[in-house]
Write a structure and sequence with these properties.
With 55 residues, the protein is mainly alpha-helical. It contains 2 helices and no strands.
Length: 55
């Protein structure tokens, strides 16, 4: 998830450098949303505290 956020951010930065503001704005917003979802998933995974089962 964070990989895709980084890729959309790179696309947004390149589009911004080329003055394609519509594409840049959409790509940066998508990357922001994916970044937030990724962070939430990481926090949920860490909080859940899954441990290996005892046999």
């Amino acid at each position: 998830m964070l990989y895709y956020a980084l890729m959309f951010l790179v696309v947004g930065l390149i589009a911004g450098a080329l003055n394609v503001m519509g594409v840049s704005a959409v790509a940066v917003q998508i990357s922001w949303i994916l970044f937030l979802i990724g962070i939430v998933l990481v926090v949920v995974h860490l909080v859940s505290g899954r441990t290996p089962r005892a046999t």
